Amino acid sequence: MKFTMTSAALAIAMAFGSTAAFADTATINQYGNSNDAFTSQSNNFFSATATTTQNGTGNKAGSQENSTGGIQQSYSGAVTATVDQNGNYNNAALTQTGAFFTRGLIQQQGTSNNAGISQEGVTASTATIRQYQDSNLARVSQSLSGDVDATVTQTGTANNAQVSQNNFSSDSTIGVTQSGNYNYTSATQSRADDSTATVNQYGTSNAAYVTQQYGDDMASTIYQNGNNNTATTIQTGDRQDARVAQIGGYNSATVNQSGAGQYANVRQEGTFNGALVVQRNNGNDATVTQYGSYNNADVLQDGRRNDATVNQSGYYQNAVVRQTGSDSDANITQGGSYDFASVTQSGSSHRANINQYGTGYAYNIATVTQAQTGHVANITQNGSGNRAGISQR
User: Fold this and answer.
1) Domain that holds residue 340
2) Where are the alpha helices (DSSP H) in the chain?
3) What is the pTM of this model?
């Protein structure tokens, strides 16, 4: 059913409480034309508060007809939902079920914004979306829940953030901040306890993907400042830590961690750099630092307590590290252009150091292959056209 008024739009508020004397409160304030609002609060085991404020034209905070959002809080128990919209063509939906100390907040300012938030089983959940400017889109879905927390803040035009915590991801937190235009973030936590995912994007057309599942105490941090950067972190297991920082344009970084106790840190400054870190088993450590353009680094660690460090500055550097076994160290430093370095270690307690520096069009190539126990290899090259190979078995 819809009513049309000259000064304001339609406002329907329904509040159902188990005891009228104890706190159901629903407030809708609308100013302008063609606003829609729908509030439904159910059984209330003391408290449930819903507030919808819309100021502008064409705002909509849900639909009574199809019962999607517009606040809708169900079994209750100290839930709070707030929708605040100021501008044009905003759309907000908020659905909280099960409840218990659950909050939620959608705040939009600008034109053509679109926000979600759906919390299901929920306990002490908090989901917050704040959007400024125009044409932003945000979705938060916290499912069977626990003590979870999700925050999305977008400033700019046409940014897109999707956050999903589900399947009893208790005490987990996802935070997304986007400032600029056409940035995209997808963060998912599934059966990930005491885990955090943080994404900060500044610039244009950056993309960040975070997946955390089947583990405890995982941390993923992505920072992007520039244009058209892509970062992906995938974590399964316990005590994983992945960090990616990209400054510049068209950089690509992927970190894939499984097992337990892995640490990966990737920093890219420049353009068209690529980094891949894959860590399996337990306690491996990888650091990749790239300055310049068109550099590429691949690190694969499948063992225990291996350490790999790659530093690249210049152009068209290529570094590959493969570590299987335990307690091995690999260190590659490249400066100049068109260098290639490869380290392969299997067994235990290996040490490998490669240092390559060139001037002009340097074509240094270094290869180290070590198997079994107790090997040490050290290669240092300076100049152009050098080649070095060490194989110990």
Assistant:
1) 229-393
2) none
3) 0.82
